Each structure stands twice: as structure tokens, then as C-alpha cells.
Structure prediction request, 193 residues.
Amino acid sequence: MGYSVIMDAQAAERPANGSGRAPRQRRPATVREAKALAHPLRVRILRLCWQQEQTNKQLADRVERDPGTVLYHVRLLVEAGLLEQAPVRTGDSGALEKPYRVKDSTWWLDGPLASFDADARFAPVAVFQDELREAGPGSVQLYDRFALHLSPEDAAELERRILVILDEYIETDDDRRDQPAHGGIFLLHRLPE
Prediction:
């Protein structure tokens, strides 16, 4: 399973966001983008910078890592074109700060981790677990658990249908920036025999 979606002809003609614009299309991840997304710390940095601009020190404090280590990962994300430096600002102490922000949503990348080993493909799951632990049990808004018998074709169709709905929300997310940020994950896995 990747991030890909193949829209049917009707869905491709129907604007997903109510704006009259056609929905954004997914594109293949570059090798550099895929490598950047294959590490849990970099995925976490992207999520934090998506929520709000963060300096290297703020990121290091939030992920409880050495600032030098975080800066290494930030630079890889910048080189991959996933993160960019935001305008310099004055911090609370009056010192100049160099914050970072997400440059382009990784949501629109098609299967960026498909060619990597299982540990790299598990990076988004590890990040989700960290985010959920940090937010605490009271943060859970919705919960749906399921078990299904699916052929590979059924699984692909389920992913396609879920992504069509999520795409509609992703495409219009800027319209809701005044609302609380929510995270989630759709994960389909084989049950042990």
C-alpha cells in the first residue's frame, strides 16, 4: 500500500474542494524526498513544522534530541525540498530566530516509501505512536477498528475510496487553520495467521 489513489472518471471531473478547481494530483516522490521520509525523526519534524513554524531549538526541545542532531535532519529535509526556512523573526528574548515550515505537503507524494525496507516503511507508524503518546489518551477523538477479508484488489479499492475522502479535506485544510489540528493514520495490515 502506498499513498497512491487512482480516481475514477467521475471523481476526476468532480471538484473535491467545492472551489471549482480539479483536485490536486499525486506525483511520484523523488529519491531525495523518499529518503527524507524514511526516517521517523524527519517525519516528526515535518509534522511539527506543518502545525506551526519551528526553530531548530524548538524542534530539539519538542523531540527531546540534541540540537545538532535535529539540525542534521532539518538540513536533509530542506535539501529534499520538503522544508524551508521561514522569514527571520524576533524571539521572546529579542534574539533573531530562523524558523522552518513545511514547503509542500507530503500528502501528495505517491508511495514514497514503497521501495524501502520494512523499518523505513514503518517510520510513519512510529511517528504516529509518538504523537499519540505525547497528546495523551484524552486526545483521541474517533476510533474505528476493523477486520476484513480482502483480496489485493479489494485492499486497493478500500485505499482509493478512503483517500478520495481524505483528499477533499486535505485540499481545503487552509480554510480551517483557525480550528484545532488533528492527526490520524489509516493503516491496513495483514493479521497473523
In short: Residues 152-171 form the longest helix (20 residues). The helical segments are 9-13, 31-37, 40-51, 56-63, 67-79, 118-121, 123-135, 152-171. The chain has a mean pLDDT of 83. The longest strand covers residues 83-85.
